[in-house]
Amino acid sequence: MNKNKTSPKSANDELRPEYDFSGGVRGKYAKALKEKGYTIRVYHRDGTFSEKRILGEQTVTLEPDVHKYFPNSKAVNRALRTLISLIPEKHNRASKKAAGRGRRSSSKKHLKA
Fold it and tell me: In this predicted model, what pLDDT tens digit does every residue of 54-76 receive, in sequence order?
């Protein structure tokens, strides 16, 4: 039975003054990393490295055949905005109503007495 034991803190465990984190903000970049993703790069002893891309929630991966037509974010956004503009306004309003059905309303007009 080998349990991890922590030794009591000694005077040598204190951080140096140049490592003052008192003005730091916990989780300052967490939202951006979660939404946009990040890359992990591991350096190997032989001088090479390997990378792993962690995709964020706002990241969309295009298949190679689609990427030929949309090489960057600007091209994709322009095409999607054009497509959205072709959607009839009536359909747009119906989608917004359906999205709002699950929300609670502060108004009690819809309740019967």
Answer: 888 888 888 999 999 998 889 99
- Say what the pTM is: 0.39
**Does residue 104 have a pLDDT over 90?**
no
Number of neighbours of residue 92 by Cβ within 10 angstroms: 11
Q: ∠ CA(69), CA(64), CA(52), 5° rounding?
A: 125
> Would you call 105 exposed, middle or buried from its count of C-beta atoms within 10 A (0-12, 13-18, 19+)?
exposed
Nearest to 37 by CA among 69, 3, 60: 60
Give the angle 105-108-109 at the CA atoms, nearest 5°: 105
The pair phi, psi for residue 58, each rounded to 5°, is -95, 10
The domains of the chain are located at 35-99
